[in-house]
Amino acid sequence: MVDTPPPSPSILHDLSAWAAIVINFLFNIFNYRRTNAVRNATLELEEFKRLRTAADAALSKMREGKSELRSLEGSGSTVKKLREDVAQCNRSVSAAYSSLCDALSDMDRSSMINGSDWSDCINTPWDDFCSAIDATYASQKDLAETKKAINRAVDKLDGVIKCVQQRMDGELRRHRA
Question: Considering the entire predicted model, what is its pTM?
Fold first, then answer.
């Protein structure tokens, strides 16, 4: 009986081993890049959620002011009392606006949130609200005209709220995509 030497590995076997190594390497590169993209997207979303909390709190206070103005519009108070109540409400809405500006400025400074014009988007709607609310203080207006001015102010305040809310919703949709 003659001993035969073991067969040498075939070229096909070597190529399949190398192909498996290359495929594994390419998969690892793809997986690494995808994992980094997911991690970065998660960090951006967490940063947005963290900064959005302050803006949401300010918007909530502005909504309370809007509701208060709506109730004042329907009240049966005298013109003088109505103007005093509107002035008090205006002070609370203005404080909420200041808080909102601070929150939006924080968003402007963040490198993880799209855009650096968050605080700019509310300037015009806020000026419109201020003009409308100032019209309620006109001394020549009677009760009906004052209530109409309050109604216009409510609509303008709603414009401020919607402007910011739509922008924040758009940023959130960007993270869901």
Answer: 0.79
